[in-house]
Amino acid sequence: MLLDQIVPTWDATRVEHRVVDGARARVYAAALVVDFLDVPREVPAVRSLFALRSAGERVVSAARRTPRPPDMAPPSMRLEDLADEGDWVGLGRDDGVEIAFGAVGQFWGGRTEWRTIAAGDFASFAEPGFAKIGANLSFRDYGDRTLVSYEARTVATDAAARAAFLRYWRVVSPFVGVVMRGTLRLLDHTVRDSP
Questions:
Q1: Alpha carbons 156 and 145: distance in angstroms, whole number
Q2: pLDDT tens across the length of the chain (195 residues)
Q3: What are 172-175's contacts with CB under 8 Å, separation 24+?
Q4: Interatomic CA distance for residues 163 and 143, integer angstroms
């Protein structure tokens, strides 16, 4: 898999699967255009988790007396639109088989800060104090349906970041699973609702 080349070792991983009604080419095409920002809009559990996280970040900012940066969410987040440089970047595609994407940031201290990165620099990025999230959607024939797997691997760039991330991960891992399953559910509904 592309993901094995991009993030061959990791500190934590989460994998979720869903069998989607539709041929692999159709499901792959839908995955390119599904808007990941629709997941909290369409899935109540995910919306609640995002609201809880936002509230927590506001509390931490107030307690630290640090201004909270304005929300700079893009209008959409589709895999086909991911740039070669930005917060979240496209890291490769194997048409019909896999789509890889990722981000670098600090997201465990009560405030999420994404680092702008070029896709070509992702695999070798090693600046201390950060963690890299490499993720993919992979597609396998499952009779006349498609097995879609969503994997996210996170690797920290140094021991201090690793310790902080792993403390955070013990708490959030189940919630990350809810978000990932919500994404796969939205993909399934997108395929079913498309002509």
A1: 36
A2: 999 999 999 999 999 999 999 999 999 999 999 999 888 888 666 655 555 555 445 444 455 455 655 556 678 899 999 999 999 999 999 999 999 999 999 988 777 889 999 999 999 999 999 999 999 999 999 999 999 999 999 999 999 999 999 999 998 898 899 999 999 999 999 999 887
A3: 173/12, 173/14, 175/49
A4: 43
CA distances (Å), 131 to each of 82, 86, 111, 175, 193, in order? 19, 15, 14, 18, 36
At 161, which CATH number? 3.30.530.20
Count Cα atoms within 13 angstroms, Cβ side, for 72.
9
pTM of this prediction?
0.87
Domain that includes residue 169, residue range: 2-193
User: For residues 2 and 135, what is the distance between their CA atoms, to the nearest angstrom?
Assistant: 10
Angle made by CA atoms 171, 133, 167, in degrees to the nearest 5: 25
Q: What is the spatial distance between Cα 164 and Cα 129, in angstroms, rounded to a whole number?
A: 9
Q: Determine the longest span between alpha carbons in the chain, in angstroms.
A: 56
Interhelix angle 159-193/44-64, rounded to 10 degrees, is 150
How many folded domains does the chain comprise?
A: 1
